[in-house]
Specification:
It is a single chain. By secondary structure, this protein is α/β, with parallel strands linked by helices. Helices cover about 30% and strands about 15% of the residues. Strands 1-10-9-6-2-3-5 form a 7-stranded parallel sheet, covered by helices on one side. The two termini are about 15 Å apart. 2-phosphoglycolic acid binds next to loops.
């Protein structure tokens, strides 16, 4: 595992965007695994900037997103489909048909999970997977205690996650209770993984995930077993790692 320290959020975003750009330049038809949340917004902004300057071309790029809420339509501004379109897809020349987010409105979620897993395989797998990390060590919607052996699956959100997300919805009853998420096994199959983290509130979990034991209680700790992981984090998020 390589850890790159950035001085702040802006520099973290720039370094992460640099790594993703290198992938796109080296393999223009690469498969990017993408993530939502507040952390990657600056990375996407930087990619858009370089695209606008003519330095990046998304014409052949394919993407697969980590997860999606169940029960939110694509045009709901809290859906991850909506997030990806507003922060990246609608701002660059990626072909909409080359972008993939699990279908949160699928009537048969088990079939949707199977379809999504097969889709990732049919694209030849993920070349580089971008990840954020939750305060409890979750990656995607794989909450503490999730088996490392899971592929794309339907998840019941924990009460804590529902509470944490209620600020985005009119009331707690409107927060989705389930999601579809790539599993840990799906994530671990990516050829390369880029995890980004920013801010002091991530310092404890970053230290635990990358310097503590590999246990399902800290889902991101499994990344210690992947042979090509890059962590790009700012000094605040790295403030508790052993030096
Ligand atoms: P955040 O979420 O980027 O909004 O902190 C990270 C995550 O939960 O994966």
């Amino acid at each position: 595992m390589k850890i790159y320290e950035a001085k702040d959020y802006r520099e973290m975003s720039r370094k992460a965007a640099n790594i993703l750009s290198a992938q796109i330049i080296l393999k223009p038809d690469c498969v990017l695994g993408l993530a939502t949340g507040s952390t990657p917004i600056g990375t996407y902004d930087q990619l858009v900037d370089w695209y606008k300057k003519g330095d990046l071309d998304f014409a052949e790029v394919k993407t697969v997103n980590l997860d999606e809420y169940r029960g939110l339509a694509r045009d709901n501004d809290q859906s991850y489909y909506y997030f990806m379109h507003s922060h990246l897809f609608d701002r660059v020349n990626i072909k909409p048909e080359n972008t993939n987010v699990p279908d949160g409105m699928a009537e048969d979620p088990a079939a949707e999970c199977e379809r999504y897993e097969a889709l990732i395989q049919s694209l030849g797998g993920v070349d580089i997977q971008l990840l954020g990390i939750g305060h409890n060590g979750h990656i995607g919607f794989n909450e503490p205690g999730t088996s490392f052996a899971k592929e794309t699956h339907c998840v019941d959100l924990t009460q804590r996650t529902i509470e944490a997300n209620k600020r985005f919805f009119p009331s707690v009853d409107d927060v989705p209770k389930q999601a579809i998420s790539m599993g840990i096994k799906t994530i671990m199959r990516a050829k390369k993984i880029l995890l980004i983290a920013s801010g002091e509130e991530k310092a404890d979990i970053v230290a635990k995930a990358f310097f503590g034991p590999v246990v399902p209680e800290v889902p991101a700790s499994i990344l210690q077993m992947h042979d090509d992981v890059v962590v790009v984090a700012d000094s605040a998020a790295l403030s508790k790692i052993p030096r």
